[in-house]
Amino acid sequence: xxxxxxxxxxxxxxxxxxxxxxxxxxxxxxxxxxxxxxxxxxxxxxxxxxxxxxxxxxxxxxxxxxxxxxxxxxxxxxxxxxxxxxxxxxxxxxxxxxxxxxxxxxxxxxxxxxxxxxxxxxxxxxxxxxxxxxxxxxxxxxxxxxxxxxxxxxxxxxxxxxxxxxxxxxxxxxxxxxxxxxxxxxxxxxxxxxxxxxxxxxxxxxxxxxxxxxxxxxxxxxxxxxxxxxxxxxxxxxxxxxxxxxxxxxxxxxxxxxxxxxxxxxxxxxxxxxxxxxxxxxxxxxxxxxxxxxxxxxxxxxxxxxxxxxxxxxxxxxxxxxxxxxxxxxxxxxxxxxxxxxxxxxxxxxxxxxxxxxxxxxxxxxxxxxxxxxxxxx
Length: 378
Ligand SMILES: [Zn+2]
What we know:
There is one protein chain. The chain is α/β, with parallel strands linked by helices and 378 residues long. The chain has two domains: 45-320, no CATH class; 327-369, no CATH class. It has helices spanning 6-17, 23-57, 135-148, 170-181, 201-214, 221-229, 256-261, 269-274, 327-337, 343-349, 358-377; strands at 73-89, 105-114, 119-126, 153-160, 187-192, 237-241, 253-254, 278-282, 288-292, 300-303, 319-320. Strands 6-3-2-1-4-5-8-9-10 form a nine-stranded mixed beta sheet, sandwiched between helices. A hairpin with a 4-residue loop joins strand 2 (105-114) and strand 3 (119-126). Helix 1 runs antiparallel to helix 2 (23-57) and helix 5 crosses helix 6 (221-229). The model has no long low-confidence stretch (mean pLDDT 91). Bound molecules: zinc ion (ZN). The site of zinc ion (ZN) has 7 residues, from helix 1 and helix 2.
């Protein structure tokens, strides 16, 4: 329900309320909703066109996502990305009653879809790997995607939803700028869907993944990865573990915020960025971003470089250490969740912690205090 468009809701409520009002009021409300739907249609048409163009590029069906050198293919390619709602594991299609009340281990999913192929890489993010969906995480997954799964296109177009915390923020713009500065892409367009009208390919791929997930017994991240790959016969969904249950890192997270923030400045503060839906960067104009509210609007030009002669280095930022699970969570998984795992999965997903149980420590301490009190009274 949170996906419902607020503008549509407001207008539709107004339309219902103005049924008995004079014609002028009625017409104004209807026109407002009509204009909004026209805008939605315009944006949807752009998305569909970019997807269709990408299909033409890979029409012969020989291209698959994989390691390709940057700018090694003279073409435009389109990708869409989004987070799915997190899943919980272990999971059992029979759903034993007590399982419902237990706080199971969580796994986030970040998908990057290449509609042209079509294939989607699903980043499986265990709760010990990251605690946020912030821009450092999103940019790190995108960076890993381009390095390991991108088609090596020269010209890149991207679509994502309008979530300002994850996608629409200064660091996302800085990162894409950094790519064009270092020849990793020649030009890039970043396009945001209209809030509340964001149904696009990643949702479709997540849907297929979750259908299979609900029908399968799952105890470990490896199981989730297998379910992901087997969710369609055509191998539409691919799986990439961000890390293991024991915090082995496969997809490093970097401190992009600190790194890029030193060389770039935000456009008009963050209030400015929120009002734009389309951004465009080109290697021909280092430091410049073009932004527009609607694709049909005239673009505004901004310079992101703090100093025109100081470019950020091509080297990657400092790597961030995953937060891991705290002692309390580890003991909770061992005490409460372990019994729902398969025999093999129990020691992987809910192993016996090597750290002391903080709850037991508190209990023991209070026992000591109690004993002392009793002694004193005697
Ligand atoms: Zn709407």
